[in-house]
Design brief:
The chain is an alpha+beta fold. It contains 10 helices and 23 strands.
Length: 508
């Protein structure tokens, strides 16, 4: 295998390049857990800001400059008499075991790089513990706690918030609202790949209040979609365009406030939009496989579609029975969907094809936020947990905790890309490589897996309608439910016919 890991700040011996028997084929130092072949010491990789103390039994270490590079070139490194010859010999090395195989614990590689007695930290893309954050905003003069949601294409408020604004306007405490109805935006996509109907649009005057003597941010009138209801406890959702205009996720992130989750709180995924919730994507590696994930600060947990996890061979673990485990997720329209399992993944950064791998950490960093905070193994494991849903609008959704822990918006701007709205509706299980985009063709087994997921969702909906029908005490309600049940059965038959045609295509 062999090859140069393309991160010059990798090894604790301060050599410019280092090698291991596991990662060099994918140029991903975040997954290195082997022995450095320059200094011969098996220790965790170098972490910026960590106090490094060489192993007493190792060779003398060459001091490095501030950038982490050795003062000596590769060819003149005194640690190895013939450095280039040694480099060539590394190409014949074979890995001691597969990097990602059928293992009982998805964190076996990560466990090898845990901190040792000297207090060295493992190499990680996370620079601080992840937090859940909210943003205080003023709408028509009234203060609300909003959810800053990078996964949303629009701004949204529930009808209860709109009525509160109207009542304040009548009492003279708030400005009046400009209401407009628009059929184009009457049906809005939600994160669980369903739709919600917006009642109308409203134009509101917004600002972000001052914080610690920093003046307020005034915003031109903002359009909000008004829904009959949103997720529990949500007064307002501000989408990606709002966050871009105010720089709340970058140099104005000090305006965000930490919020805590109640023990019995159902985690929420609030992405919402016209065609798809958002056209912003983030290059990320999960267990060495590259994805364009939705960076969603409106999602309290990270999610993965079951079909995607099955195609890529990710082991799906059963949920814990304790109360701290997440067993369901609530979407922006208030719908609750059960979680069917979880995937334990190792996260690493991925670069677009036009960016060299050495630019993994080339994002513009705010000078006031250069320091890092120690993050525990438990936090890393928690951030690497992706909950499995049978119905999801995206392959992978990165939640707010993960994005905050890696400070993605400041440190890794090169990992973000925007896709066209017309391309936003991607088929599931589309993967991306560094050199080209490769769209996996459906196989017969994948077709059967998708049909099994569809049948399960139909059965759940049918059971719910039958329960509602049994509880309905009015004829009008019963007739409406019976109509929904007939429509569900009709659509089920149509989908069954399409599935049979697809299977016939494989046989022919």
């Amino acid at each position: 295998m062999g090859g140069r890991c393309r991160n010059p700040r990798s090894c604790i011996c301060a050599s410019r390049w280092w090698y291991c028997d596991q990662c060099c084929n994918i140029n991903n130092p975040a997954l290195c857990a082997g022995r450095c072949t320059v200094c011969g010491v098996k220790q965790p990789p170098f972490v910026r800001g960590a106090k490094v103390r060489p192993d007493p039994g190792s060779v003398n270490h060459t001091p490095a400059n501030k950038s982490g590079h050795s003062h000596l070139s590769d060819a003149t490194n005194p640690s190895i008499p013939d450095f280039e010859a040694h480099h060539l010999s590394l190409r014949t090395l074979k890995p001691s075991r597969p990097l990602f195989g059928a293992t009982d614990d998805a964190f076996d590689v990560l466990a090898e790089s845990r901190p040792d007695a000297d207090g060295l930290e493992p190499h990680s893309i996370f620079v601080r513990p992840g937090k859940l954050l909210y943003l205080d905003i003023m709408i028509n003069g009234l203060r609300f706690s909003s959810v800053p949601d990078s996964g949303s294409h629009i701004n949204a408020i529930p009808l209860s918030t709109f009525k509160q604004l109207e009542q304040a306007s009548k009492r003279g405490r708030a400005k009046s609202s400009s209401v407009s109805a628009n059929d184009e935006f009457s049906v809005i996509s939600v994160g669980n790949d369903t739709s919600a109907g917006a009642l109308f649009q409203v134009q509101l005057v917004c600002c972000i209040p001052s914080v610690d003597l920093v003046p307020e941010i005034k915003i031109s009138p903002v359009f909000f979609h008004v829904f009959e209801r949103l997720a529990t406890g949500v007064s307002a959702i501000v989408g990606l365009e709002f966050l871009r205009q105010t720089n709340v996720l970058t140099n104005q992130d000090f305006r965000l406030r930490e919020r805590s989750r109640a023990p019995a709180h159902t985690p929420q995924c609030l992405s919402i939009g016209k065609h798809q919730p958002s056209n912003l994507r983030f290059h990320v590696l999960l267990n060495g496989k590259e994805f364009l994930a939705l960076p969603d600060t409106g999602s309290e947990i990270s999610l993965i579609h079951r079909a995607c996890a099955l195609q890529h061979g990710f082991p799906i673990c059963a949920l814990d029975v304790d109360d701290d485990e997440n067993h369901a997720v609530e979407f922006a329209n208030g719908e609750i969907q059960g979680i069917s399992g979880k995937v334990l993944a190792i996260l690493a950064l991925s670069a677009p094809a036009s960016v060299e791998p050495t630019s993994f950490d080339c994002g513009v960093v705010d000078p006031r936020d250069l320091s890092t905070t120690q993050i525990s193994e438990a936090d890393v494991a928690r951030l690497g947990t992706f909950y499995v849903l049978d119905q999801l609008a995206h392959e992978v959704i990165l939640g707010q905790r993960v994005l905050h822990a890696m400070d993605a918006w400041n440190r890794h701007k090169s990992a973000f890309i925007s896709i066209k709205p017309s391309d936003a509706k991607q088929d599931l299980c589309t993967i991306f490589s560094r050199k080209r985009k490769r769209k996996g063709e459906d196989t017969r087994s994948q077709c059967l897996q998708r049909e099994a997921v569809r049948k399960r969702n139909v059965e759940l909906q049918r059971e719910q309608l039958n329960r509602d029908l049994a509880r309905a005490d009015k004829d009008a309600a019963r007739q409406a439910l019976q109509q929904k049940l007939r429509e569900l059965n009709r659509q089920d038959q149509v989908d069954r016919n399409k599935h049979e045609e697809a299977l016939n295509g494989f046989t022919t």
